[in-house]
Amino acid sequence: MLSNHEVLSTLEMIKSENLDLRTVTLGVSLFDCASDDPERFKDNIYRKIVCLAADLVDTCDEIGEKYGVPVVNKRISVSPIAAVGAGLSSRHMVEVAKVLDRAAMEAKVDFVGGFSALVEKGFSRGDMALIEAIPEALAVTARLCSSVNVASTRAGINMDAVYRMGQTIKKTAELTAMQDGLGCAKLVVFANIPQDVPFMAGAYLGIGEPEAVINVGVSGPGVVKKAIERAREANPDISLGELAEIIKRTACRVTRVGELMGREVAEKLKVRFGIVDLSLAPTPNVGDSVGEIFQSLGLERIGVPGSTAVLAMVNDAVKKGGAFASCNVGGLSGAFIPVSEDLNIANAAAEGYLCLEKLEAMTSVCSVGLDMVALPGDTTAETLAAIIADEMAIGMINKKTTAARLIPVPGKKAGEKVFFGGLLGEAIIMPVRSNDCSADFIRRGGLIPAPIQSMTN
Fold it and tell me: Using CA atoms, how far apart are residues 249 and 151, in angstroms rounded to an integer?
């Protein structure tokens, strides 16, 4: 039960602190759509998605208006297409991507995720076809998102897949060069990918998930920042432990609001409610920034010494608060630090406070990884793969989810600015030190074995 103080605090979040529900994502299983006839397969996919998602947007808007908390994004995630369409060629995979995009447009959702493959131990024919299709698929669609899991704590790192994804990112950037490599913003490479992520670009519906399910992603970096600032105004000498407690309590209230709304959406759509993803997901708007939380805690900018410690504290406090609020926590659940999507983080990179190496160090304690990082257009596929490999190693060894969403911007150099628009924001292109110094390592391929800590049975 909420105390009177917590109720009033929650109302204040809604009234004055821009509390929103960042995403409601409808997961749709497509396994019963499988067919050896590509045309029938595409027709089955389209019909099922449009039927199940027909009322998603209107229902989210209705519930958002009822509680005064807007649902910012409405999305769909589907079963991994590499598995559902295992017998398809890469050409047919591109056609499936177009159908998914058309279904998303018909349902009026922002994005559809699940053009995905799970290749941490090796490739099937369907995996190879899908990965080959990714660059063209992302170039010819507007709402499609793609993800590939190349590593896990139990399986190790599939370095052949890592290299292939470096090449795939490079080609995707080239095919969307007129949009500054925008296709890469909808492509993410994972280690330990969860099956129930509601956030894009990594959302897909895992094989162990229900026929249809509602997963929600809460947010609230602005709410957390305001709570910290109020506490510091009331007590300028407040300790970090006390501030962590405030972050925990704030995350608890935000999570309860998110689950309440998500369950009501699920009930109205007559599908199961799945999980609440607790991630602090920023936007390019002032006052809705994870980077600003660092400043409210006493750092001049994100990226200066102390940043990794602050991120660890915030991430842990958010998880503790969310876990107390709900028994249905899942997805990524922590703090996102996407460079272009967070105005404060983008500015810190532009001013030299945050470099690629410091960002990688911070990903060891956050929930995602190298997210929305713009790189020079001449960054080689081998260097991209090496950056991915480093990030995958952090996830594998620490038994956590990590990811890389890298954007080599064609024709642009370090220090130049790139604009992606909307929630994707803008960023300064980060320099890559020692470009093309990892080629021999990457081209060796093979499997980096799983760590001994994977043997936990």
Answer: 34
